[in-house]
Amino acid sequence: MSTLLEPLLRSALALALLGVGGRYGVRALNVRLAAVFGGEIISQTATWCLVVGLLLPLWWPSGIGLDSAASTIALVPLGTAVGAGELAVAGLLSTMVASVVRREPVGSHNWMAVVHSTAVRPYRRLAQSLPWPAAAGVFVLVGLAQELLLRGAVFGLARGGGIGLAVGLSACCSLLTAVLPVRDRDGRYLAGVVGLVTGVAHGLLYAHTHSLIPLAVAHGTLLALAVL
Amino acid sequence: MRAYLLAVLVLWGLAPMALASHLHGRWIETKFRNLPTLPVYLVLMTGLVGLALAVLGPRMLWDGRWPGLATAAPGGIVLTEITWRADRYLLRKLGRRPGRPAPNTAQVVRQTRPVGIAARGPRPATAAQRTMPTNRWGKAERQREIYVGLPWLVAGAVLEELWYRGALGHLALSGIPLPVGVLLLAGTTAAFALSHLPFGWRQTAAKLPLSVLAITATLTTGTVLTAVIGHTLFNVRVWHLYQRTTAARAKAATG
């Protein structure tokens, strides 16, 4: 029990700091960074790198999950398939959530609601202004930044607490990072669905393979299929 | 590698209709206007069943006990009778209640012609339309998917049973911890019902008895054959019902 206490306390502290920081600080910081960098995605990624980076330097794990080239390359096509599957599950769940929250029957106005929501609006704007290969490349880079923090760093934070704690903490952090930057209530619900699905799936996969590149590809595929 | 393969099987398998519908609406329908979603869904399901057979092996379809195979045909007929009655009962019970009407599915976007400096750049509405998926599952799409040929419905029944009860049922009961397996089994049962969500919550709820009884029959007999026969006969009844409805409507229209 005492061995679990330290990772549990660390996780609770990090979640509390992320929650409070995200609630009061991140949106204000995000607006300022958006003014400097001129792009919502860049500012969001920079914000989260800054926030999580400030919290986690003491608990950074010994390895960050950049495995050998051979095993990583073999997993990349499967990472693409995982991303497509995550979009399907998140899309179905978002249809249900949108139908329940808006109290509407299922129809074309809420089918795959997340694809039309403000949760993916910055990515859609980026896709409209770039050729599709460049946009897909940016999505993979965004995925890599998020995976480095939400899997690499968070698993280091929860070390010693077992896979269950690590996956749970990873899912909670994914949920927070997905929900907090979104401003409207409807978009927050739908972003939460995506955060939860990717958090659980990527957490379980990272716990088994300790490889981040395929997960970044999965993240990029999810965004690309949703907005391209 | 195996963890990723299992993740692909579970994620794609829990929402194959959503994936097929998204791919169809965004990329396929733009080229083949009148192609329904069902063929895309069946191709996807065939690929999933093939992948599951490669990863899990043929034991996912039959555990090797002969008594289960012998009782498959009568069991399937009983399954059809019970689930058909339950389906009709639930559809009647959950009939449309008075309340807020369904919103208009075709959202009207009023656009004005840009003039002056605004007319020089690209029109934002055009760019947005280019990258937005087409609207899905309005009344027209539902009608298109309902009135399909009998072979499509039979193929759908067989593939869905091989997938939901065979592959996912086998996966839930072998090689993973029991609590996770029970969750996956419940998720699989719900996922089959939710694959009918494009047709509304009523149809989704009405398909729960079929889902529960099919997984029960598979676990009891040790083979998916009972569920395959039961689901196939169920879909044949659905097809007959729609044929009768169409004929009655045509007769009423012509007098």
What class would the helix/strand composition of chain A place it in? Answer: mainly alpha
Categorize the overall geometry of chain B.
globular
Give the end-to-end Cα distance of chain B, rounded to a whole number of Å. Answer: 63 Å
Our count of helices of chain A gives 9
Q: Which outline of chain A best applies? A: globular
- Could you tell me the number of beta strands of chain B? 0
Fraction of helical residues of chain B: over 70%
Strand content of chain B: under 5%
Order of helices and strands of chain B: HHHHHHHHHHHH
Question: What is the N-to-C succession of helices and strands of chain A?
Answer: HHHHHHHHH
Mean pLDDT of chain B: 82
Number of domains of chain A: 1
Structural class of chain B: mainly alpha
Count of extended strands of chain A: 0
Largest interface: A-B, 40 and 39 residues
User: What's the mean pLDDT score of chain A?
Assistant: 80
* Sheet having the most strands of chain A: none
- Nearest-angstrom radius of gyration of chain A? 17 Å
Helix-residue proportion of chain A: over 70%
Percent strand of chain A equals under 5%
Terminal residue distance of chain A:
49 Å
Task: Write the topology of this structure.
The complex is a heterodimer of chains A (228) and B (255).
Chain A: H1 2-37, H2 40-55, H3 69-101, H4 113-116, H5 121-129, H6 132-157, H7 162-179, H8 185-209, H9 213-227
Chain B: H1 2-14, H2 16-28, H3 37-56, H4 66-70, H5 72-93, H6 124-131, H7 139-146, H8 150-173, H9 178-194, H10 201-206, H11 208-221, H12 225-254
Helix pairs in contact in B: 1-3, 2-3, 3-8, 5-11, 5-12, 8-9, 8-11, 8-12, 9-11, 11-12
